[in-house]
Predict the structure.
Amino acid sequence: MEISNRIRGFQASPIRRLSPYAREAKQKGIKVYHLNIGQPDIKSPKEALDAIHNYPNDIIAYGESDGDLALRNAVVKYYNESVGVDISVNDVLITTGGSEAILFSLMALCDPGDEVIVPEPYYTNVHSFARMANVSIVSVTSLLEDNFALPPLSMIEERITSKTRAILLNSPNNPTGHIYSPKELETILRMCQEHDIFLIVDEVYREFCYDGLNFTSVLKYKDYSDRVICIDSVSKRFSMCGARVGVLISRNRNVIRETLKLSQARLCSPTVEQYASLAAFGAPADYIENVKREYEKRRDFIVKALARIPGVKCARPNGAFYLIAQLPVEDAEKFAIFMLKDFNYKGETVMLAPAEGFYESKDLGRDQVRIAYVLNTDDLEKACICLAEGLKAYNQN
Ligand SMILES: Cc1ncc(COP(=O)(O)O)c(C=O)c1O
């Protein structure tokens, strides 16, 4: 009996596939600093935790497929008041994480064999979502040497073919930290209009922009409403990654109506967590302000700490909480395994995400890792010491 060729073609996530080595290291009593995954050590809002503790119903029942109405209304209020865009509750579908919103967008817009253009390096799980939807990713490369600035937008246009259905952006970007400027967004929207394709923008890190930079949501451009899908999530904004509550927003009624069929097939998103997400939207405004300030501090810290390690190069991210670092090794995956399997410094080590899987183009990112600076600066300091010592030991072998 054989399993499908399709499933064999999927990649094991570079963020998680080294987890068995981390587990073994922990079983040996080694402390592992997780720089591999965007799981912040920041507390979820008290309002959300209280809501879970005080869930008022006797049954954890199915909810509506398009999401809890009170939560959808809270999302609308947040967009109107905080993001400064005017959307209606009919534009909003609650999804099981931003992940499902990305998958649903690809399913709704593309037929099997269609193409979606994505700047690389990109959020690696998009690779799997594209495979699930039977869609090809066509990449446009940005380089560490250019601080991951976007390549000339004309390069995106050159990639558009008769099979292209959408451009998928992520801003602020995981893993590069790039934030799309209003000018870039407008140029890309005009390009989409000219070629009659959609623009999907994943804005799950919207709140985390540094150096005084402001964020512009794609939903601000109402003239292009019909061709825009915006992805959002409570995972990062409220440090509620395990809640699995995301949002798909589009003013294109056809997109919402057709996507709802997918929502109905999976019945509903988690009921209790939607209740907690609703409460999270009621958290005081300084919750986000404090979290953002903390990430900016961590960004400043880790960029300096990495610059001190011989042979390590990294770009300076403007947003989100990741960076790509180039290491003085040939194969970053082998090095990441070495760190977990064969190395510790004073009983501690780090887990890294090899970056090759964040690129579509072959042979890119082989000597790079993605680092999530989601730990407090004390832990980041110890993690960077482990990394420096690990590189020394690895290159002596
Ligand atoms: C860019 C980006 N989009 C979407 C997601 C998935 O978010 P969620 O937890 O809401 O599924 C992540 C998670 O790390 C991400 O980095």
Q: What stands out?
A: The first helix runs from residue 5 to 8.
